[in-house]
Each structure stands twice: as C-alpha cells, then as structure tokens.
Amino acid sequence: MNLDELKKITDDSTLVNELYKVFNEDKRLTVSKSAMVEFITTVRYIEKYLKPGAKILDIGAGSGTYSLYLAGRGYQVDAVELADQNISCFRSKIQPGMEINLVQGNALDLSAFKDENYDVVLLMGPLYHLHEDSDRKKAIDEAKRVCKKDGVIFFTFIGHDMVFLTELMYDRHYFRTGDYNHETMRLNDFPFIFFTVDESRKMLEDNGIDILHAVAQDGASELMGDIIDAMDDYEYAQYLKYHEMIREKPEFLGMSNHLLYIGKKDRQSSD
User: Fold this and answer.
1) CA distance 59 to 270
2) What pLDDT is attached to residue 31?
3) What separation in angstroms does the CA of 91 have from each of 1, 18, 53?
4) Residue 24: CB partners within 8 Å, gap ≥ 6?
5) What is the pTM of this model?
6) For a Cys-Cys bond, which of 53, 216, 220, 232 suits 256, CB 3.0-4.6 Å?
7) 243, 254 Cβ separation under 8 angstroms
C-alpha cells in the first residue's frame, strides 16, 4: 500500500497497522549515530527514574527498542503494540531470560493492566497517530490510571515546526510542493500528527499531568546527519554533551523533530 492509498484510511487503528508495513520502525533509532541521539537522550531520562525492581509499561512499543534495552538491564517490562509488523519484529528479538510480556493492543484500552501498577509508563508513539482530542485524552488517562501515584510517565510528540526544515533537506522545492497549508503554514496531519511545543504542553497540562521535563529529544540531529555520522568517537561524545546542554532550553524545544515530556499525575488525578 502506498501513501496515496493510506490517505484514504479514516480509522486510526487501521492506518497505524498499514503505516508500519511501509515505514521500518525497527531501524529508525539505531541505524546511525545521528539517529541514536533520540534513543540515547530518552534512555538517559528513563534511567533517572529507574529504581531496583521497577515495573515498566511500554505503550506503543513499536519494534521493542526501549523494552528490549530495559529488559536487557534486568527490568520487568510489559509492552503493548498495535501494528502486526512491529509485533512480529519485536517477538523475534526477545532473548531468553528477558522478563517481557508483549501483547497486541491499543493505547485507548489498557483494561488488561491493573490500576497504579507501574513505576515508569512510556507513551512514546501513540500520540503521533490519534486524530481526535477525545482519543488523545483516553490514551493519556489510561497511562495515568496504570501509573503509580509516585510514578512517572513519558510522552513523545512529533514537533510541528521542525518538520518544514527536515522536509526541505530532502526536497529543496518543499515550500512549493509540500503537504501543508500555504497560507497558515500549518502541516497536514499525515502520515503522522504534529504538535507545536505550546500545543503539546497544553494537552498534557489540561489532562492532569505535572510536567517535570520538556526535552528536545533529537534536536537538529537529522538535519546534521551526514556530519554527525562521520564523527569519530570523541567528536560524537562531545556532540552528545552539547545536546545535553541545550535539550531543555526553551529556545531549542521547537527546533526538534521529536519532543519528549516527563511528568507525574497531578495531585487531583492522584486523589
């Protein structure tokens, strides 16, 4: 199925399942040094909040990159994924001894999982795909429900404003031919759904999340991909230090392909 055919699909769940037959999620985070910036950044924040014996739920786990890493470190991980292609790839990589419970399911219905059962909840992907405010609220509410009162939830968004520059890198005529409203400069939400920093922050706060960190997850790493990928180990380590220095500065948040938020349920949600 090509992208034009995908545009005809109106059901979010069907679109996700078909989309990941086209997009190779398995290699996205690990294919190069520049691609690894997103993974390294996210793991460093997850590790800030891990305690011995922590239970983790990975909602929208994709092909298992984060679940497999965390299970490899000895943590118990429950993982939920919708797309058939990702499920198959994920299962093929589970090693003996890993405590991973992988189920096929939807971020909108986590009824198979107990209330307040997880120390760390990852909702890193489903909000890329939910068109309706009501569905986004359901996904956030479900993540809150299964998270312990003192637990943390990780949310990711695709940053609206950076997409223009990323697309321009691949197509110098993007501002003539690109899939956006040429008057309002608003991207059309396909094949993913895009949010500005203000929109994503407001969404979380309106749905009862106290934000602890707002992070430019990968920053300009894709734009600088060829240069970063050619770095030697020292240069790459220094680039990661630079990224660490700027990734929470407000002036850099909008210039990132992916936005990461770490939050807790607010007091009203926990009562």
Assistant:
1) 20
2) 86
3) 24, 19, 23
4) none
5) 0.93
6) 216
7) no
